[in-house]
């Protein structure tokens, strides 16, 4: 065999040995050569930039401008809307243009927090971003949902309205809106209107209180009275001075009791000396005709308006 041929056979064998050793013993990694390291660091940062999340959410309960937020100018009529987050999750509440195209003002609210926005009187849209892991102002929460209020909200001049955010389920997207227009968060008067939107469960719900304890009622025109689950009544101490009684429900005859409460509110409407039933078979507080008959209730498709008779 010719010497040149022997030489090239040895060279080929040496290369084959090196390739085999590199494969078996992972020599590039041992010497610090990693294919991922050869990629552009700038390219990696750019790829991550689109989904980059902030270290912290905005300061809670402090409103901030997003787009060109309308300002209350001199001699211009203002309106105030109180936003109260009673949802299970933190939210980013955004006041928008009526069509939702422009985002005016936003506020980040933890569960139980509330704040007020002062804006020029007019029509607005309202959207909630809800979740548990904050990302950024563009996407809200990395595990969250965007839940728009189904209707426009009209803020009358020199009025004070409220938007309560509630839960009707255990997930972040189960946001229930309760909008009270024209100052129903203050003492009720004959000009006030409570505007409710039908929720995803198909019913209307309203925020109220019994003896100062906040309670969300389901409006039930088929119920004769105000009914509260017995378990909730005992939890907040409403079962005192309660007389035993029996009730007929869809599930049959159940036990419970009745009591007269001194103060019951629905939105900003106040009622005194109202009889309330506490039944052991109830699952949700019901607002029945003993209260509804004293109010003017108008329903149009998915909107319910409640005012004084």
Walk me through this protein's architecture:
The protein has 309 residues and is mostly beta strands. It folds into 3 domains: 3-38; 53-166, Sandwich (Immunoglobulin-like), CATH 2.60.40; 187-309, Cathepsin D, subunit A, domain 1, CATH 2.40.70. Helix content is 15%, strand content 44%. The protein is built from 5 helices and 22 strands. A 7-stranded mixed sheet has the order 5-2-11-12-13-22-21, with no helix packed on it. Strands 14, 15, 16, 17, 18, 19 and 20 form a 7-stranded mixed sheet that branches. Strands 1, 3, 4, 6, 9 and 10 form a 6-stranded antiparallel sheet that branches. The radius of gyration is 31 Å and the shape is elongated. It starts with a helix and ends with a strand.
Question: What is the gist of this entry?
Answer:
This protein is mostly beta strands and 309 residues long. It is 15% helix and 44% strand.
By secondary-structure content and strand pairing, the structural class works out as: mainly beta
Cα shape? elongated
**CATH T-level fold name of the largest domain:** Cathepsin D, subunit A, domain 1
- What is the N-to-C succession of helices and strands? HHHEEEEEEEEEEEEEEEEHEEEEHEE
First-to-last CA distance: 115 Å
Helix content: 10-25%
Give the class-level CATH name of the largest domain.
Mainly Beta
Describe the largest sheet: 7 strands, mixed
List low-confidence stretches: 26-50, 183-190
Q: Nearest-angstrom radius of gyration?
A: 31 Å
Please tally the β strands and state the result.
Answer: 22
Per DSSP, what share of the residues sits in E-state strands of 2 or more residues? 35-45%
Helix tally equals 5
Q: Specify the CATH homologous superfamily of the largest domain.
A: Acid Proteases
CATH architecture of the largest domain: Beta Barrel
Which strand order do you get reading across the main beta sheet? 5-2-11-12-13-22-21
Mean pLDDT: 78
